[in-house]
Structure formats: C-alpha cells, structure tokens
Amino acid sequence: MAMFLIRRIGHGILVLWLISVAVFALFFVAPSNVAQTLAGRQGTPETIALIKHRLGLDLPVWQQYLHFLGNAVKGNLGYDYYHQVPVTHIIGQALPITVSLALGAAVLWLALGVFNGVISATHPRSLADRGLTLFALFFYSFPSFLLGLLLLYFLYFRLTLSGFGWFPAGGYAPLAGGIGPWFQHLLLPWVALALLLAATYTRLTRGSMLDVLGEDYIRTARSKGIRESRVVVVHGLRSALTPVVTQFGIDLGQLIGGVVVTETVFSLPGLGQTAVTAINQQDLPVIIGIVLFASAAVVVANILVDIGYAVLDPRVRLH
Amino acid sequence: MTSAIEMVDVLDEPRAIEGRSPFSLALRRLRKDKVAMISLAVIVLIVLMAILAPVFAAVTGHPPNEQYRDLGLTPDGLPRGPNGTFWLGTDDLGRDVLVRIAYGARISLLVGVIATAITVVIGVVLGLAAGFLGGITDTILARLIDVVLSVPFLLVAIALVSVTGPSLTVTVLVIGCFSWASVARIVRGQVLSLREREFVEAARSLGAGDRRIMFVDVLPNVIAPVIVYTTLLIPVVIVTQATLSFLGLGLPPPTPDWGGMISESQNYYTTAWWFILFPGLALLVTTLAFNLFGDGVRDAFDPRADRT
C-alpha cells in the first residue's frame, strides 16, 4: 500500500510537471501584447519595455519557466499582471464558489442517479425502466448552457414576472452571509449541473445493480426470506455502488476545472469564470495557475479513487 | 479470427445461415431496436437539412446572412416572430432564423464528424501501439494519456482558441487533439489482454510482423467498443463545438452556427422566444437523436448489458 501510494504520487507529480511545461510553452510562445495593454494607448516603447522587465517577460522563456517552477514548488504561483495579487489568493477566493457548486450538485445527482438506477434495475425492461432511461438521456443530451438558460427563463424570469421572486438571476452569496441566500443563489446551478450528470449515474447504477442482483449470494439472501427491499438496498446496493464511487471521484475532480459554462450562465465568480476572464485579459499567471490547480484536483481525485476502490472491494490489491 | 473484410462478406450473402459474425448479429439487434431506428431517421433528416440548406434559402428567398432591417425587424428594432415570410421568425439583425438553422446544421455535423474521426484515429493508433508494443512505448504513451485526461479540457480549449483566434480548423483540431485519450485508454486496455491470446502467437509463428499483427489481427477485435464509443462521442463533440461558440469562441460571425445563435439570443429571450427556442431545439434534437442511437448501438454490441 505504501509503495503503491509513493508510486502513484510520483506519477501524479510527473503528470503535473508535464502539464506545466506544456501550458507554459503554449502561452509564452504565443504572441502576447499584455505589456502593451498595461501601458495603455499612450504607452511609449520605453514604458512597455519597463513593464516587460517588471513582469519578467524580457527573459528567455526557459528562464521564465525555471523561475515559475522554483516559486511553484514553494507554493507560490506568481502574481496576476493587472493588480499584482498572488494567484494562490485569487484561486482561494474563487475555490469556495466552485466547491459549493460542485458538492451541492453532487448530492443531487448522486441521489437522483442512484435512486433511478435502482428502480430501473429492479424493474428491468418495464415502463418505469424505459421512462427513466429516456429521462436521463434527455437531460444528458442537453448542452449545459441551454439547460441553464431554460432554467433561468422559466424559474427566474417567468416566476419573477408572476410575482414569485424565489430565484435570483445569478450571482453568488457567500455562506458567511447566511445559509438562506447561499442556498437560494445556488439551487438553480445545482439543478442544472445535476440533471446533466445524473444520466451517467443512472446507467452505471442500473448496470452494476443488474449484475449484482444476478449473483448467488442475492439468491441466498432471498431464499432465507429476507424482505426484498432489504435484499436490494443492504445486500445489493452495497456492492453495486463500487463503480459509482469510482466515477464519482473522477467527476468531482474534473468539475473543479470543468464548470466553466454553468458558472458563466449563472454569473458565479468561481474558478471557471475567473479563468475565462483571465484568458480574455491574457493574464497568463492566473490562467496557468488555475489550469495547474484544476489538473492537480483531477490527479488527486484519481489517487483517492484507487485507494477508495481497494477499501470498498477487498478483492482488489494495490501494487 | 474474422477480419473486417470477412464480416462485410457475411452481410452481403443473403443465405449465410451458418456462422454469423458478432458484427452482423449486432446489426440485426440494432435493426430491431425501434428507438434506435427512429433516432437514425431523425439523424438522416438533419443531415438532409444540412445538405439542402441552399434549398431552404432558395425557397424562402432569404440568404443566410442577409439582414432584413425593414422587413425582418419591428419598428423598435426587435426581432419579428414567426410569420408567413419568416417561418421561424428573425434574429436581432433581421436574418431568417430557419435558413440560419439549416446552415448551422452543416457546421455542427461537419465538426461532429471530422473531430470525432480525428479523435478515433489518433486514439486507436496510439492505444494499439501502447497496448501491443508495451515497454518504453507504453510507458510514454500511458503518461501522455494521463496528462491529456488530467487537463481541464474546456479551459485549455478556450485558452487555445483565444490565442489562435476562432476558426473551424482550430475548433476541430482542439477537440480532436484533446479527446483521443479516452479512446486510447479503452483500446489499450483491450489490447493488453488480447496480445496474450493464442491467435497472436499463431500469427507471429507464421512470420507476421508487429504492424501486421496490430492492424490485421488485433484491430478487428477492438472494433466493437470503438464503434460504440464513436457513436456516443459525436453528440459530445457537437455540444463542445456549440459550447465554444456560445462562449464566443466558435466561428467568426456572420457564419451561422447553433451555439452562436443561442449566444446571440441571450439578450432577447424575454422578448423573442423563437430566437432561442428554435436553434436550441435543433441542437437538442440532434444530440438527443445521436445519444439515443448510440445507446441502441451499445445495447446491440453488448447484449449482456440489457438482457436479463
């Protein structure tokens, strides 16, 4: 186990390092006029050169990279070009919003997906099964921005027009300001995200539940006269959930850098929206910082998933 | 082992009762799947709409980028709803929504098919190489797969497009170059177990080289999961393209494309429902048809999953 962990963490660091090289090369090789932008329209060549020097942009790319890497190892991802705010600080500001969005949606999509999957699996090929599969695929087919806009149209615009101002048009209310406004601002984004992702979980739960319900020990449990609901939930679901947990870990890791659209549609200033703003402003340290942070989230999630897999399923040995 | 060529032969022989290949059995199951067949019909209709887009323009008399500032806009300068002249209404610049949807289908399908093809070719070749050749090749390719799968795809795609400037080629390349890793991982996993099988040893003892064994003997055995994955990848790619357009990184205006139309309609959704509804519906119907069809393909190729 210890050897496994060391190897996986080593691989993870290697992957992150490769990503940092690739991202750095990509953006620093691409033409940038950020110094020009910062200098303003009246910026003289001298001012631009000075700004370039201040930002370290006059050094060769490989020196800039080594500088970046040296700081990154110490936990410093550099400063944003416009206000000299530490990138780690910017990430720290945006992260709670993205995490609130991802975790709340996760609760919804897990509940929805697993529940529907179990219903489908216990009544295979029935009307309910087909209906739920169609329901899941319908929302799975939705482009996330379209689903978001639709929710906003009906639940914000139409409802507010009819005098029910239950949902805001977007924006974020920090948890510190009370759980009510926080919940109110996040409910629509949660639903939008959860409906999209629930489909995968419905299918996954259904498939693995069908496999498990065909096992001998389920028949044994039934023949002992245990209630069907108990057989399904306690005996069946427990082992059927292993692939669901795996997928869940992977999805959560990817959501850290993957909720760009939902954040944009609902004007949530999380990591995704911050990154998009940075991209539009060519604010390279912020872009690189967020991309690396999001990649790290995926790498860590994958390692946790492997460990969780071994804990859940005693047959799996890590080596 | 049946090779791809033999499979096609079996299909062409009407009386081949003995020894149906798994492929023809899967096709048979697919043909009996009503939902999949209806979805296929819808896909064919959308393809026809894309091909016949100029006919839409000719019948209505409205070129896709023509702005009807008087006829197509209300005196207040707002889009006009569906009427006898503009069947699905007009957009914010007085252009015909119907004609633009028809032309937009071309972009969605083109990107969907080409980017998926690039993804699958890269993924299959690298997956085969990693799984079959093993050793240092596998080590390098496996790490490369890890890297691509760990990168936040949409963020990097947005960043790339903003650096290079939006165009059809960039969209296709970005999607293709970042989606191959999942295909490669699936293929690699399959090949790892296949290369230990007797038929590979048999081929080698007959004097076949690596390349021949990989593409002639091993490849046909991984075709089924690849076909399933490919069908389900097309709608994902179409959505990705629309998403990039929605974020303003699709195709330079005035090229009509669904994601861009929905993006333009955002400021009008309170006053001009048709402007967002019809492009949205076109996009949704397309992805839904591909997903339902892909679901049928999956069930047909993996009968274990759905028959109890």
UniProtKB/TrEMBL annotation, chain A:
Tree of life domain: Bacteria
Keywords: Cell membrane, Membrane, Transmembrane, Transmembrane helix, Transport
GO-annotated cellular components: plasma membrane
Principal location class: membrane
Membrane topology annotation: Multi-pass membrane protein
InterPro entries hit by this protein: BPD_transp_1_N (IPR045621), MetI-like (IPR000515), MetI-like_sf (IPR035906)
Alphabetized PROSITE patterns for the sequence: ABC_TM1 (PS50928)
A Pfam match: BPD_transp_1_N
GO terms, biological process: transmembrane transport
Intracellular or extracellular location(s): Cell membrane
Family per record: Belongs to the binding-protein-dependent transport system permease family.
Name of the featured protein: ABC transporter permease
Organism: Kribbella soli
TrEMBL record, chain B:
Coiled-coil region: none
Membrane topology, record value: Multi-pass membrane protein
InterPro entries in the cross-refs: BP-dependent_transpt_permease (IPR050366), MetI-like (IPR000515), MetI-like_sf (IPR035906), OppC_N (IPR025966)
Location in or out of the cell: Cell membrane
ABC transmembrane type-1 domain segment(s): 105-294
Transmembrane segments: 35-59, 107-133, 140-161, 167-187, 222-251, 271-294
Origin superkingdom: Bacteria
CDD domains for the chain: TM_PBP2 (cd06261)
Name recorded for this polypeptide: Peptide/nickel transport system permease protein
